[in-house]
């Protein structure tokens, strides 16, 4: 089953169909051809889950905020706060990506919105396009950590008993830490190469830019505040985010019209369809692997590699990093979690902390070639080749890996906030 999955991937078959076909191969060869009758049931059961409604809604919310002119207003406000200095625009890019991550929950959407606004300004200030594109792609990867994260929603569904509110709270400080880790080399490189000479970049008026940014700044407050207060569940928070984004785009920024909103519905449906198709067909793979004992055997093999939990955790992180360089977060969770859950339980790792470590690792993969979905978006906007960013990508990979190591060594970075808020850990 696993061999057929890898062969299908190498042959260029999309991940969703590779998972479904490999599951069918496992059923035919290891169980009975008559068990193929379960394909429909397993496909339906995989997506017939109420929390999954949040995924297409947060995808739609991210698209609405992106087209509502939110990123441009956040950039102006951040520029007004920071002013013109060496590395000032780099700081603006990281800060805006962190705030946008609190609205979209999607790295590629975050990268596209910020790159469209920031790249022209950074290029005029003397930043090389490969550096700017890589910095924005890396910063946008924090969207997988900053709530609301689509990947963390799926993790809470795949891993039984994990409180999504605890995951959202746990991702906040590691997400900010990752942003700060990226900012250190960006700021140092800017000063070393003399990019963005003070006085060359216009500083917008603070009061006016703050007034225009208020609707954007309120969006994360609405989502996280509503969750903390119990006003709505995570799924209802997605509905609130969409409704608020529509109001902002249509009536406040007025950069969105009804025809554009209708097109966004279609675009969100297309993206959501791809995501849910992967989840649906992965159900066949998961059911076949469970019935065949594949996942149990692989978990036992992993546990037998070392009695030292730290050593095994390092090996798992390395494997997830390599997977993140080739696959998206949703596919990684669906493929690896059935194997990793028994390992996590054996070593008694906290599932919330472990989920954040996986998310940080996958975030690194989002801007690490050869696939690097975020980097593909920003290089397309910048009009450069992906190969031109390799050196810069390595710098930011090392920086974010340092943040990942800090969270691994000090779990309280992730677990302190959900513990204080009283969520189930």
Automatic annotation (TrEMBL):
Pfam families in UniProt: DctM
Top-level taxon of the source organism: Bacteria
Record keywords: Cell inner membrane, Cell membrane, Membrane, Transmembrane, Transmembrane helix, Transport
Protein's cellular compartments: Cell inner membrane
Transmembrane segments: 50-70, 82-103, 134-158, 164-189, 237-256, 268-289, 301-323, 330-347, 353-377, 389-410
Keyword Cell membrane in record: yes
Functional description taken from the UniProt entry: Part of the tripartite ATP-independent periplasmic (TRAP) transport system.
Subunit record text: The complex comprises the extracytoplasmic solute receptor protein and the two transmembrane proteins.
Name the UniProt record assigns to this protein: TRAP transporter large permease protein
Organism: Modicisalibacter zincidurans
Organism lineage string: Bacteria, Pseudomonadati, Pseudomonadota, Gammaproteobacteria, Oceanospirillales
């Amino acid at each position: 089953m696993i061999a057929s999955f890898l062969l299908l991937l190498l042959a260029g078959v999309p991940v969703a169909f590779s998972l479904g076909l490999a599951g069918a191969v496992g059923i035919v060869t290891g169980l009975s051809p008559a068990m193929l009758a379960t394909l429909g049931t397993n496909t339906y059961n995989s997506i017939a889950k109420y929390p999954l409604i949040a995924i297409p809604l947060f995808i739609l919310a991210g698209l609405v905020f992106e087209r509502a002119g939110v990123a441009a207003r956040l950039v102006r406000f951040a520029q007004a706060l920071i002013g013109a200095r060496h590395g000032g625009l780099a700081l603006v890019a990281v800060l805006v990506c962190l705030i946008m991550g609190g609205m979209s929950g999607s790295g590629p959407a975050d990268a596209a919105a910020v790159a469209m606004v920031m790249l022209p300004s950074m290029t005029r200030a003397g930043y090389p396009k490969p550096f700017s594109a890589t910095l924005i792609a890396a910063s946008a990867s924090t969207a997988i950590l900053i709530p609301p994260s689509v990947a963390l929603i799926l993790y809470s569904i795949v891993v039984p008993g994990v409180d999504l509110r605890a995951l959202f709270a746990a991702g906040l400080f590691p997400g900010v830490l990752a942003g700060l880790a990226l900012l250190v080399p960006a700021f140092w490189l800017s000063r070393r190469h003399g990019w963005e000479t003070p006085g060359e970049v216009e500083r917008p008026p603070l009061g006016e830019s703050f007034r225009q940014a208020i609707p954007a700044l309120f969006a994360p407050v609405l989502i996280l505040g509503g969750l903390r207060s119990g006003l709505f569940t995570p799924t209802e928070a997605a509905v609130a985010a969409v409704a608020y984004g529509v109001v902002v785009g249509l009536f406040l920024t007025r950069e969105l019209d009804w025809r554009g909103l209708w097109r966004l519905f279609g675009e969100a449906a297309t993206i959501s369809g791809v995501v849910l198709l992967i989840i649906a067909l992965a159900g066949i793979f998961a059911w076949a692997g469970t019935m065949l004992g594949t996942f149990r055997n692989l978990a036992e093999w992993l546990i037998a590699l070392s009695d030292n939990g730290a050593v095994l955790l390092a090996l798992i992180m390395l494997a997830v990093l390599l997977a993140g360089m080739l696959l998206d977060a949703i596919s990684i969770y669906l493929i690896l979690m059935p194997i990793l859950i028994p390992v996590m339980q054996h070593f008694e790792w906290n599932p919330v902390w472990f989920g954040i470590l996986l998310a940080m690792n996958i975030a690194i993969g989002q801007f690490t070639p050869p696939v690097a979905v975020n980097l593909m978006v920003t290089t397309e906007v910048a009009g450069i080749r992906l190969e031109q960013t390799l050196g810069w990508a390595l710098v930011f990979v090392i920086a974010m890996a340092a943040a990942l190591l800090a969270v691994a060594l000090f779990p309280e970075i992730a677990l302190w906030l959900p513990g204080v808020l009283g969520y189930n850990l």
